[in-house]
Amino acid sequence: MSFGAKAKGSRLEYQLRDHLRALGYASERVVLSGAHKDHPGDVYGDKDGARLLFECKSRKDSFKSIYHELKERGGTYSIGIDDASRTAPLVRMLRFNLDGVCVVISESLEGVLAPHQIYYHLYANQPIRTYKKILGLQKMVKKSEILVIKDNHKPMLFVRFT
Question: Rounded distance, CA 104 to CA 111, Å?
Answer without folding.
Answer: 8
